[in-house]
Specification:
Blueprint lengths: L17 H9 L3 H14 L3 H11 L3 H4 L1
Helix pairs in contact: 1-2, 2-3
Length: 65
Amino acid sequence: MENKRLYKTEDNKMICGVCNGVAEYFNADPSIVRLLWALFACCAGTGLVIYIVAAIILPDKKTIM
């Protein structure tokens, strides 16, 4: 069984690499994850806070590989 880890990525990142890391974790398109995250941030208002917390907490891919 594959050991999946959630992390930030350096390649194809826009701000901190959180959305691209989430997209790799769920094997999804990073653009879709970014759109959903932006929609969640606009509608619920907590998306920005969650993004900032994730950017601080998640490790970089190069540090765990």
